Amino acid sequence: MSNNQSNDPNQEEDVLTNRQGHPVTNNQNMRTVGNRGPATLENYDFIEKISHFDRERIPERVVHGRGAGAHGYFEAYGKAGDEPVSKYTRAKLFQEAGKQTPVFVRFSTVIHGTHSPETLRDPRGFAVKFYTEDGNWDLVGNNLKIFFIRDAIKFPDMIHAFKPDPITNLQDNERFFDFCCNSPESFHMVTFVFSPWGIPANYRMMQGSGVNTYKWVNNEGEAVLVKYHWEPKQGIKNLAQKEAEEIQATNFNHATQDLYDAIERGEYPEWELLVQVMSDGDHPELDFDPLDDTKLWPEDQFPWLAVGKMVLNKNPADYFTEVEQVAFGTGVLVDGLDFSDDKMLQGRTFSYSDTQRHRIGANYLQLPINAPKKKVATNQRGGQMQYRVDLGGNQNPHINYEPSLLGGLQEAKQEGKEFTPYIEGKLVRESIDRQSNTKQAGETYRMFEDWEKDELISNLVSGLAPVDSRIQAKMIALAEEADEEYGRRLREGLANASRDGSSQKPLGNKDGDKAPEKAIKKGH
Ligand code: HEM
C-alpha cells in the first residue's frame, strides 16, 4: 500500500506528483460535483494524467518493432588477428588492448509488431551503439551474414511482401515467395531463413553481422573493405520448427526473458567481434562482387580476425526510454570507419535517420540513450522538444553560426590523412555484373548438417505447398540451380504434399522433426 500521507522527509522522493511537481493527494477519485459526478473541465490532474496516457505510444518501427536491449561494454584487443589493428583503421576504440567503450545493444525480430512472438521464422536484428570518445558509432546488423536483396530501392516492396496482407492482415507465404522467386538474389537468404538458422533459440546464442560492406581507414588515409561478425561465447543454438511451436504455446516472450533473466543472474552474455578484410577494389578475380550483401566472403580467402569482445552486463532501467527510443543508423560512424559503395548500405544510411525524425522527433539525438557520452556542441537550434540550453559551447552563446570572428564554435582539426576515393562513371540504373544468385545457396545447403537440410526442405515444402504453382516452379528452379539434391528434394516434397493436400500456414513448417539437443558449434 502506498503511504503518501507520510511526514517522514526521507520519504519525500517517493511522493506521487503530477508533471508540474504538484503533490497528488488523491489518485483514486477524480474531482466531481458530488461523489456521483458529473466531472468538471478544470480537472487539471485528471486531464493531465489521461491525456499523457493517450500519447504513451510513439509510432512503431516500420520494421524490427519487437526488441529487447541491454547495456554493456566493448573491450578492444588492439589487434586484428595477429596484426596491429592500426594497420587497417585508426578508429580509437580499437587501438589499445583492454580499452573499454560503453555500448547499448538492441536485438529484435523483423517483420511483426511490438508484441509478436519471438519464436517466428525471421531474421533477428543485432544493433550495437558504441559510445566512443569520438562520438557514437552504430553497427546495425542482423544475426545472419547476408540479406534478401542487394539494392535499397527494392526494400519497401520486400517488406510489403513479407508483412501481412493489406486486406486480411495475415502474413501470407504466397506474397513472400512471389517476391522471392522474382528476386533470385534472395535465394541464398531464403535458404538460411527456412533452415533452423531462421529461428535462433534466443538472443544470447546467436551470431551477429554487419551484413553490408564497410571500409576501414588508417592514419595514412588508406582504406580496406571490411565486414563485421559477432560470435557468441555462449555457443550458437537454433530451433526446429516444432521446438519453436512448443515454446510459443506457453511463452511468446522467451528471448526477451532469457536475456533479461541471464543478466539479472549475473550470467553476462559475451560476443567476440571479428572482421574480414579485403583490399579496396572491385576484385574481378572473385565470382561475386564484394559489395553484394547476398554473398558470404569465403573464410579460407578472407580469414576472420578477432578485434575485441563485448559483454552485456546491465538491463535497461526503463524499456520505453531506452529500448523503444533508441535510434541506430548505418550513417553513424567515427573517424577511421567509412562507407563502401554497397548500394544497400547507401540506401539504408538515408532511411534510418529519416524514419527516426518521424518516429521519435527532430531532437531524437538529445535523448540520453541516443546522445553521445562526450560533449555535443552544434549550431543546430530549435525543433520540437528542444530542451538543451548549452548547445553552442561556452565561448559566445550569441553566435549560432560559423564562420565568425566573434567567438562561437570552430571547425575541428582533421586527424590523420583524409580518405578521398576517386569516383567516375556514367549515371545508370543497372544491376551489378557478377550476380551469381544461386551458387552460394548451393554451398550453404551442402554445408548444413543432415537435420538442418531435413528441416529446410520440410519448412520450404509446407510454406510453398499452398502457393500458386507458377511460384512453386520458379522456387524449385532456383533450388535446382543451387544444388541438384536440394532441387530434387524440394520438387519431390512438393509433389508429395500436393498428393496429401495441405493447408496454408504462416512462414514455417507443418510438422518438422525435433532438432537434436545440442548447441551448434560452427557458424556459417
Ligand atoms: C531497422 C530500413 C536493411 C538491420 C530499420 C528501420 C528502418 C530500416 C526504416 C527502422 C529504424 C527505426 O525506426 O529506428 C532499412 C532499409 C534497408 C534495411 C531501407 C535496405 C535498404 C537492413 C539490413 C539489416 C538491417 C541489410 C542488417 C544488416 C536493421 C536492424 C534494425 C533495422 C537491426 C533495428 C534497429 C533497432 O533495434 O532499433 N531498418 N533496413 N536492415 N534494420 Fe534495417
Automatic annotation (TrEMBL):
Family annotation (Gene3D superfamilies): Catalase core domain
Tagged with keyword Glycoprotein: no
Active site per the UniProt annotation: H64, N142
BP term (GO), one: response to hydrogen peroxide
Ranges of Polar residues composition bias in the record: 17-32
EC number: 1.11.1.6
Molecular functions (GO terms): catalase activity; heme binding; metal ion binding
Disordered: region residues: 1-37, 489-524
Family annotation (InterPro entries): Catalase, Catalase_AS, Catalase_clade1/3, Catalase_core, Catalase_haem_BS, Catalase_immune_responsive, Catalase_sf
Gene Ontology cellular component annotations, sorted alphabetically: cytoplasm
One Pfam match: Catalase
Cofactor: heme
Reactions this protein catalyses: 2 H2O2 = O2 + 2 H2O
Keywords linked to the UniProt accession: Heme, Hydrogen peroxide, Iron, Metal-binding, Oxidoreductase, Peroxidase
Annotated heme binding sites: Y352
Domain Catalase core: 17-410
Compositional bias (Basic and acidic residues): 508-524
Similarity remark: Belongs to the catalase family.
Function statement: Decomposes hydrogen peroxide into water and oxygen; serves to protect cells from the toxic effects of hydrogen peroxide.
Record protein name field: Catalase
Organism of origin: Peribacillus loiseleuriae
